[in-house]
Amino acid sequence: MAVKRDLTQGSVGKNITHQALGMMVGMLSMVGYNLVDTFFVGKLGTSQLAAMSFTFPVAMAANSIALGLGVGAAAVISRAVGSKNHDEVKKLTTNSLYLGLIIVAVIMAAGFSTMDIVFTSLGAKGEILVMIKEYMTVWYWGMPFVVIPMIGSNAIRAAGNTLLPSMVMMGSMIINAVLDPLLIFGIGFFPRMELEGAALATVIARMTTFIASLYLLNYKFHMLAIVKPKIRELYESWKRVLYIGFPAILNQFIPQISMGVATRIISDYGKEAVAGFGVATRIEMIAVGPLISFANTMIAYTGQNLGAKRIDRIEDGIKFVNKASLIIGAVMFAVFAIFGKSASLIFNDDPTVVNISYLYLAVVSVSYGVMGISMSASATFSALHKPYSSIMINIIRMIVIFIPLILIGNYSFQLPGIIAGITISIFLGTIISVLWLKKTIEKFKAHPGFTNTEPVPVEESI
């Protein structure tokens, strides 16, 4: 297995930009999934749109588990790539996929058994709750096609190739876009399935990423060890992946809990408010996708440079990604301030839905630049094998900052106050992330014997 791109050599900016652009194709494909689903479901009516909006925190939470496992796998695989240990790369990749299968079974069992409790607690009731259960019953059956490709794609990215996994995701998004109207509205010989059709289209499209990722891992990148796994090796690999992956799951999960809390509070204002919030958070992914792409490059980039003992390059990478995040955030703020209302009208023509969606986009977009900086810090903590620093920051952000601010905002200014609370919490959380990461980097640099090209030994950094 040859490394597709050595991130320990050459221009920091070019390396990160190349990786981010390749990853951005995949992120925009994920955005396409959400926007296409929202567009067609919005044509069914406000109730259906509200029902799908209720599913968003839960679906994103399940996806967060897959992403967290992918982050854990990428962190340990990228270190093996950086140290040129190709046998270790194959072992870690294969054993990570086995772990994914176990996690899939847990997610599905938990999801099916808690649907009523979870969505009732989010504020869903009546016909909307019935529609939610129809959607999620199909959606949960597709979890194997979410978790396994996420781990596989992150393994490929850890080896330095971000474009191919993204192209696979793009192809899957196109399949979803074709199937959505056929299954939602019952065009031709297809049955009219409405929300169930949206879920089924997603499951079928995700199945293609499952097949493609396994094919690429085995036949193109030769990153799989097709042998009977040894229990001891499985245990050791899983322990390493979960050391990073479990905190990464929690890091991804905590924001979804926060959004679930916000959804519950917003549900008191009616289905139009929930639908408007749902439309806005999906449109928001247009801006968040590029930010995530640049942030996630720090996993492979930091991992490879940690393996090669180049902390100086990690510092330069952090600075570059932070600048890129601020530029992207400024551009997206201008776009949403001008075109946010027009974008919202594409998905639903209810004036209340559109106004709430636009209010969210116009206000929260002020924070997009610093949101990217916070995402980059979280990814860097994981790759530095300091995952619990990131999780502590997120817990503080949710309990001390986010929830109190939206409760105060709701009490004082109702919906505008909730949206303002979300925005302010992003700024305050980012300040904590930046200061904490700076302190962590300084500890690496202060290690005895550290030089720019030979930082703290890897084994002493965890």
Automatic annotation (TrEMBL):
Family annotation (InterPro entries): MATE_fam, MdtK-like, Membrane_Transporter-Flippase
Pfam family, one: MatE
Localisation: Cell membrane
Major site of localization recorded for this protein: membrane
Leader peptide range in chain numbering: none
Transmembrane residue ranges: 21-42, 54-77, 97-118, 138-156, 168-191, 197-219, 240-266, 286-303, 324-347, 359-384, 391-411, 417-437
GO molecular function: antiporter activity; xenobiotic transmembrane transporter activity
Membrane topology: Multi-pass membrane protein
Domain of life where this protein originates: Bacteria
Keyword Transport attached: yes
GO cellular component: plasma membrane
PANTHER family: MULTIDRUG RESISTANCE PROTEIN YPNP-RELATED
Protein's recorded name: MATE efflux family protein
Organism of provenance: Candidatus Uhrbacteria bacterium GW2011_GWF2_39_13
